[in-house]
Amino acid sequence: MNACIVAIGTELLTPFRVDTNSLVITERLNSIGCSVTAKTVVGDDVEALGRLLAGAIGSVDVIVCTGGLGPTEDDVTREAVARALNLPLDVDQAIEERIRARFTARGLRMASINRRQALVPRGAEVLENPNGTAPGLWLEHGQTVLVLLPGPPREMTPMLEAVIRDRLSSRAARTALFRRVIKVTGRPESDVDERTQPIYARWRSQPVPVHTTILASLGQIELHLTAEASSRAEADRALDPAVAELHEALGLSVVSVDGRTIEAVVGDLLRAARRTIAIAESCTGGLLTSRLTDVPGSSSYVDRAAVCYSNQSKVQWLAVPEALIAAHGAVSEPVARAMAEGVRASARASVGVGVTGIAGPDGGTPDKPVGTVAIAVATETGSRTHTFRFLGGREHVKDQAATTALNMVRLMLLRG
Ligand code: AMP
Ligand code: MG
Q1: What is the spatial distance between Cα 341 and Cα 143, in angstroms, rounded to a whole number?
Q2: Distance from residue 5's CA to the centre of ligand 2 (Å)
Q3: H/E stretch holding 347
């Protein structure tokens, strides 16, 4: 079974609103083995939407539309569907009564424009909306099913769940798409690709083929492995060895194979070893600590953190010797190490981290250009320090510095 998704709303064509519904819809369709072959964003435009629907009907099994079911003049999905399929719009008294009752229950009078929401293309079935006035619609036309869902995500999602459960899953093939995510950090995308390509080629020709996609963002890479199978057990038989082989090829640069973020992995390692962490951040401005504390339960291992931007703060709070800063500069490995050791000592924590760098756009020099970041991790057995040159703007440098610091902590903990 295949599907296309149409996100309807003029606001979705501006830089201010993004269509997130189609991601949720894709995930739910994939879970019942229905693949998405195309998705489109279209404005609140009867003509454009009508043309799009007329073109899609008959070429896919399912068209899921979201948006444009509200009561106002610009909500035209019902009209466009009626025109594309040449169907009259009938007033559904039951819907009108339900909408009126929703208003009455809140002590309000129904505005006459809300009656538009009771218009139904002839032959369509009504999908209940427990969280709003706009009902959804289910319409079968030849081989194609048209599903119309409202735009607000909190209304759309429960209706989608119900449609998938009660109507679409029984039409879908008896297979589903199963996915595994391998998170990798500390290697460039080209290197990950080179090591993994020969492996994919073999898995693609298995009885249950495993398909792979590589998704790279600055500092983090994800390998998505998917298998279409009739049961989880069958998918596991195909995916488990593929994951294991990729894990082996990528070694310690694999952060997780179960979807956990690097901060969650670091947290689990700290908790398992009954260790605590203290952090001293300069150029990341608290981002590293913020990410560590995004993990529920992080209070059991995060002891404290200091954001020390000025030289004076590094001297006063972290006991970094003034002479060290004078000799090497604030962005240097000796200072990063002194920050890590200083915060670790004052917290009496097992692990100390120091991050100091030049996030830009100003402050770079020929030998320390923008993106230069020194990171140190100190433990009871010694410390490890490294200087990195990150690319990108301020936000990207901060982000990569935080990820890389987390990765250094992870590797220190794994290597014992
Ligand atoms: P509508 O059903 O078209 O009246 O949509 C109402 C509101 O839902 C819009 O103002 C958006 O904030 C939100 N919305 C509509 N479509 C989407 C979408 N595809 N993804 C996320 N939010 C949406
Ligand atoms: Mg709209």
Answers
A1: 68
A2: 15
A3: helix 333-347
